[in-house]
Design goal:
3 domains, 6-stranded antiparallel sheet, mainly beta, 2% helix, Jelly Rolls
């Protein structure tokens, strides 16, 4: 049986559990004190008030999530404000050193925390971490902007301690994940088993770019158009961009996901593929035929407008993004310094390996 995944909806900061194919939730407008276990404090009229300058804890009953408010040392917050009825409901931490502790995790789970600062100063919720690592692409909240920060569980219990100015917490979602190490900055990809959320993918690899996924929304005799997808059902052929050798965790979804408009086909590792193009060095090239390893994707000629694009002598299909740029133009738009290599995703490469790169606005192939 698939292990239960926990989601905390802080429409009041309280837990919603998500198990395979089933969602459970609290109606926050009907929340009462009986839904909480409070130590060193009390609940009354949308306020959880500390009873002394000490550590106050709020345990969400049934779910393995605890909020700890350090009100000691003269920094007493006195009250934690909640909003049960609003569409923008939240749990407000009025004091720094507030800790969220989640147990029952599996190593590799992704913890997605949706929050905003409670004033105009910059707020970083991840002051001190225990049992988890922060996604290197997390953004801080400035001017009360709402952001989602992601963390990767490294133990079965994780704690996230905020050390700035307090915050408004909207939701916490815990996802199981699949792990992927990119062999290149741009690769084809598929997963025959899992529905995936790429917007909730995370990496702790220093300097790594965020992982992005694309479907081929169109293909003709000269180019392939890629459209970004934040979610994808199982058996969806995709193109991923990120950082070579970076280790990514991709969130697994339970709920149904609509299939994108897509010309790519997922590989199963057993079927013979012919009359198709495959990704190589940032472009699509003709495939000589045979079995392609599972976990990849290919572009059948039958899905290309006009059929076989290489029959007339073309050697490759250029990749276009649906924002009007090409993989090459996206790099050329950058200021290219002499001797600096960029991959086709526009990322600087310190130690280029075999492949296609852009140097001073020109294509360079390293063999």
């Amino acid at each position: 049986m698939k292990k239960q995944i926990f989601t905390l909806l802080t429409l009041l900061g309280f837990a919603v559990g998500v198990s395979a194919q089933t969602t459970y939730g609290f109606d926050t407008s009907g929340m009462t004190e009986s839904d909480l276990t409070i130590t060193n404090g009390s609940y009354n009229n949308h306020k959880i008030s500390a009873s002394a300058e000490s550590v106050m804890t709020v345990q969400v009953k049934t779910y393995p999530i605890t909020f700890t408010y350090d009100n000691s040392g003269g920094n007493k917050a006195k009250e934690v404000f909640t909003n049960f009825a609003s569409d923008k409901a939240y749990l407000q931490a009025n004091v720094k050193n507030t800790t969220i502790t989640i147990s029952g995790l599996t190593v590799g789970d992704i913890i997605a925390v949706d929050y905003s600062g409670k004033n105009d100063s910059e707020e970083n919720i991840a002051g001190t971490l225990t049992g988890c690592q922060a996604d290197v692409n997390n953004q801080t909240s400035s001017s009360k902007a709402r952001v989602v920060n992601k963390f990767i569980a490294t133990a079965t219990t994780a704690s996230i301690k905020e050390t700035n100015n307090g915050y408004l917490l909207y939701s916490i979602t815990i996802y199981h994940s699949v792990e992927l190490t990119l062999s290149k900055d741009m690769v084809s990809f598929s997963d025959l088993t899992n529905k995936l959320s790429f917007e909730n993918a995370a990496t702790a690899t220093t300097g790594a770019d965020a992982l992005k996924a694309y479907a081929a929304s169109a293909a003709d005799g000269s180019s392939v158009t890629l459209t970004e997808e934040v979610k994808a059902p199982a058996s969806t052929g995709l193109i991923l961009t990120g950082s070579k050798d970076a280790v990514y965790k991709i969130a697994i979804l339970d709920n149904a996901v609509s299939a994108p408009t897509n010309k790519l086909v997922a590989t199963d590792g057993t079927s013979t593929v012919s009359s198709a193009a495959v990704l190589s060095a940032g472009e699509f090239h003709p495939f000589s035929g045979g079995v392609i390893a599972a976990g990849k994707a290919y572009l059948p000629y039958a899905n290309i407008t006009g059929g076989d694009p290489f029959a007339g002598g073309a050697h490759s299909l250029e990749i276009n993004f649906d924002n009007g740029t090409t993989a090459i133009k996206a790099v050329e738009a950058k200021k290219a310094e002499n001797g600096v290599f960029y991959n086709l995703a526009g990322q600087q490469v310190a130690q280029p390996q075999k492949g296609l790169y852009i140097v001073n606005g020109k294509k360079v192939v390293i063999k």
